[in-house]
Write a structure and sequence with these properties.
The chain is α+β, with helices and mostly antiparallel strands. About 25% of the residues lie in helices and about 20% in strands. It binds flavin-adenine dinucleotide (FAD).
Length: about 400
């Protein structure tokens, strides 16, 4: 889904882009997704914000509640919208996916094409024999290519939680909802629900215990665990078929990557900064990545690409992660691209096994994913220069939370 946003940004910046997708078709799960105001602003910058704004969530209150629905922290979404200039929207994933895909010129996406190896050098990137100026790695949280680029990085760390998500349809209009998130202090279980503009209700549930694997049994288990909660939890689970519930074990990067760009290769989305879903920011951050990528590559020709991606890294990585201490042994640090002279502050790009480091500025380039396991990446390839697009990021403040009177 998200490489489509990056592709749109790069097309708008005047570049030729190809998306390589491992799956036989572009698809998304049937569940919903919350796009926070910063994500909507990023979609605005991609020219896609209008239809998303039209689907803004028809509810004004949110926040955190106890399991009975009593407010613990309330969020005034109208105030948030006025403050930031964009609403919270709740969409079905397939709808958002179609919106993003429709923005791409025909032929941009090549499906059934799993990337297995990437080799970066001073003048280009070679991906399974295909040569390009820039590669954008966006193969998701379990990114194999990230591991090849940063072999000393520990990768994902499980949160210990599982999450189920779905959209309940045909919900009675008079069903009392408790929008926002219900929290059970006894177990740490959570249940969130957000009505959507089309009458459906997006809901999710989290837990730490072991749930049954069988979908109908898990459905009953989820419902029974919430039997003494606000009635909307059981009602929304009842209104959803067990097969329509998507379950994942949630995870995040064990620690931030030392760089979001290495020479001519940039990372985007969950491959770059996998985070737990309770933040509601994974896709929103990827949209911001896409806008930033389009902005830095606007006006950049092939020779300027490494410098442009270094600016992308600087834009998208918080300052404290760019401090020297953030670099770990064996992990390349962010810094100027490798096209110039030696750069002792940068560390070195990685080779399979993580043991071999090259001097910066050498022509040999970066070898990734040549080990026994094929690396996985979805890549976009800007292939020509030109441009004339100014894409600006506007960072919105987060919702103000204030205690709700009891
Ligand atoms: C339960 C849950 C709820 C969430 N809720 C929200 C929310 O409300 N708001 C929000 O902003 N975010 C939310 N997120 C996060 C959001 O879903 C992710 O951040 C987002 O889907 C990541 O997209 P991605 O494109 O980076 O990765 P993915 O969606 O994982 O896509 C990776 C793609 O790469 C392809 N691929 C993999 N390997 C290869 C290869 N070798 N070659 C070619 N292609 C390959 C895959 O087929 C896939 O299409 C939630 C996540 C979860 C789990």
């Amino acid at each position: 889904m998200l490489p489509a946003a990056a592709s749109t940004a790069l097309h708008r910046a005047g570049h030729a882009v190809t998306v390589l997708e491992r799956a036989g078709e572009l698809r998304e799960t049937g569940a919903g997704i919350g796009i926070m105001p910063n994500g909507v602003l990023a979609l605005d910058a991609l020219g896609l914000g209008g239809p998303v704004r039209e689907r803004a969530a028809p509810f004004a209150e949110g926040g955190i509640r106890d399991r009975h629905g009593r407010a613990l922290l309330a969020t005034d979404r109208s105030a948030l919208r006025d403050l930031v200039g964009a609403p919270v929207t709740v969409l079905t994933r397939p709808w958002l996916h179609r919106l993003l895909a429709a923005a791409l010129p025909a032929g941009t996406v090549v499906t059934g094409r799993a990337v297995t190896a990437l080799r970066e050098g001073p003048t280009g990137v070679e991906i399974d024999g295909h040569r390009t100026d820039v590669a954008v790695v966006a193969d998701g949280a379990g990114s194999r290519l990230r591991a090849a680029l940063f072999p000393a990085h520990p990768g994902l760390r499980r949160s210990g939680e599982s999450a189920a998500r779905s959209v309940a349809t045909g919900v009675p209009a008079d069903l009392p909802l408790a929008p926002g998130e219900l929290l059970d202090h006894r177990t740490g279980d959570r249940f969130g629900c957000m009505p959507m503009s089309d009458g459906g209700v997006y809901w999710y549930a989290t837990w730490r215990d072991t749930a049954p694997d069988d979908p109908p049994a898990r459905h009953r288990w989820l419902r029974e665990r919430r039997a003494d909660w606000h009635p909307c939890a059981a009602a929304l689970i009842d209104a959803t078929a067990p097969e329509a519930v998507h379950v994942v074990q949630t995870a995040q990067l064990a620690r931030p990557l030392p760089a979001l760009a290495v020479g001519r290769v940039a990372l985007l989305g969950d491959a770059a900064h996998a985070m737990t879903p309770d933040l509601g920011q994974g896709a929103c951050q990827a949209f911001e990545d896409a806008v930033a990528l389009g902005a830095v590559l606007t006006g950049a020709g092939p020779a300027e690409a490494p410098a442009a991606l270094a600016r992308y890294d600087a834009l998208r990585r918080p300052p404290h992660e760019r401090a020297p201490a953030a670099g770990r042994a064996g992990e390349p640090r962010a810094g100027p691209p490798r096209t110039g002279g030696p750069d002792p502050g940068r560390g070195a790009p990685a080779r399979p096994g993580g043991a071999v480091h090259e001097g910066a500025g050498r022509a040999a380039g970066l070898h990734a994913a040549a080990g026994p396991h094929p690396s996985r990446s979805k890549a976009t390839f800007p292939q020509r220069d030109r441009v004339k697009v100014a894409l600006l990021q506007r960072r919105g403040g987060w919702g103000q939370r204030s205690p709700m009177p009891t």
